[in-house]
UniProtKB/TrEMBL annotation:
Predominant localisation class: cytoplasm
This protein's pathway: tRNA modification; 5-methoxycarbonylmethyl-2-thiouridine-tRNA biosynthesis
An example Gene Ontology CC term for this record: cytosol
CDD domains, alphabetized: Elp5
Keywords linked to the UniProt accession: Cytoplasm, Nucleus, tRNA processing
A GO biological-process term: tRNA wobble uridine modification
Originating organism: Curvularia kusanoi (Cochliobolus kusanoi)
Location of this chain's protein in the cell: Cytoplasm; Nucleus
One Pfam family cited in the UniProt record for this chain: Elong_Iki1
Family: Belongs to the ELP5 family.
Organism classification: Eukaryota, Fungi, Dikarya, Ascomycota, Pezizomycotina
Molecular functions (GO terms): tRNA binding
PANTHER family: ELONGATOR COMPLEX PROTEIN 5
InterPro entries per the UniProt record, alphabetical: Elp5 (IPR019519), P-loop_NTPase (IPR027417)
Name the UniProt record assigns to this protein: Elongator complex protein 5
Length: 339
């Protein structure tokens, strides 16, 4: 596809990329990796993926370690408890066997790989290769990786997931993104949140999981290897966003795309971002008068600067001669001067 030549074409191109991923279009992204943490969980995004898949009659299979309640149209594969990795793969295969197109969602990739010892390559080959379906996995970035001796030379799970993923989506709280933008506008360091603060006992910050919507930073990897990155804003879905469900469908089809670029959000684009993010530092007024009166300007011009005489005519050609008047306390050594 040709590179966009103007802003309007660029916006359409960027929205088309994320829309294909959200709507589970065939071949758009065989493996989508979603990164989240306690400050912004991926559940709003996962819920939107499932809703759009069901609206298109796509078979949805949920491999769950954390969630226990699902829509009746979702095929649940519990992975917690005594379930083994081999048993989980068998249940996924059975859930995919009778469907033409499927979406497999894993709510904790780390536990699937490290606790149940499921081979990531085998899972990807089963879903994307054998059944030509879409795999979506969630990785919690605040999970501490296992540092066992037997895995000292093995790559970290997150590195493996990023290497295999065709789309990587990072979830961020909208309120935290606004706070970071406000700090940049004041030329201040961006605030840190959650575990990155390094404060004892703090794992989740205020304004986490903003209900206004979720900010998603997406990286799309083409077959050529060239990545494309963009940041979007996904608000909560409304009933008016979907048509009425037809017979035999759980949800109606999408009426109009409502994911937008982050730069198009009024609260982010506005110059009042600092006020919206509750940054009280902007309300502080300086107690110093930085202006100068005419009398102060005249006094400043009359100040004689050091070595000013060396810049006059008597100093020309002497390489900036320094004039120094010896005082009574100075000890003049004639022998040293001769050397």
């Amino acid at each position: 596809m040709a590179r966009p030549v103007n802003a309007a074409q660029y916006q359409r191109h960027s929205l088309q990329l994320i829309s294909r991923v959200l709507n589970i279009r065939s071949g758009a992204s065989p493996f989508t990796l979603i990164l989240d943490d306690l400050n912004q969980r991926a559940m709003p995004l996962i819920g939107e993926l499932v809703r759009r898949a069901l609206s298109r009659n796509v078979n949805v299979v949920a491999v769950s370690f954390e969630a226990t309640r699902f829509h009746p149209a979702v095929c649940s594969v519990p992975a917690y408890g005594e379930e083994t990795g081999e048993r989980i793969l068998q249940r996924i295969r059975a859930a995919l066997s009778d469907a033409k197109e499927s979406l497999v969602v894993v709510d904790s990739l780390y536990e699937l790989i490290n606790v149940k010892n499921v081979d990531m390559g085998a899972l990807f080959h089963l879903v994307a290769g054998e059944f030509a379906s879409t795999l979506v996995g969630v990785y919690h970035q605040d999970t501490i990786p296992d540092q066992g001796a037997h895995k000292a030379y093995a790559p970290q799970p997150l590195d493996v997931f990023k290497y295999m993923a065709t789309t990587v989506i990072t979830c961020k709280s909208f309120a935290h993104v606004l706070a970071a933008k406000a700090a940049r506008e004041r030329s201040l360091p961006e605030p840190t949140h959650g575990l990155l603060q390094g404060a004892e006992g703090i794992v989740q910050c205020l304004d986490a999981n903003d209900r206004r919507g979720i900010v998603i930073e997406a990286e799309f990897r083409r077959k050529s290897g060239r990545p494309e990155s963009e940041t979007y804003f996904l608000r909560a879905a409304r009933q008016s966003d979907y048509n009425a469900p037809s017979t035999g469908t759980a949800f109606g089809t999408l009426r109009q795309e409502f994911v937008i670029l982050l730069d198009q959000v009024p609260a982010y684009r506005s110059s009042e971002t600092t006020r919206l993010s509750n940054a009280t530092a902007n309300d502080m007024e300086s107690t110093f008068n930085l202006g100068l009166t005419d009398k102060q300007k005249q006094a400043r011009e009359e100040v004689i600067l050091p070595y000013f005489d060396a810049q006059k005519g008597e100093g020309a050609g002497e390489g900036g001669r320094i004039l120094y008047d010896m005082g009574e306390e100075d000890d003049f050594d004639e022998e040293e001067d001769e050397i």
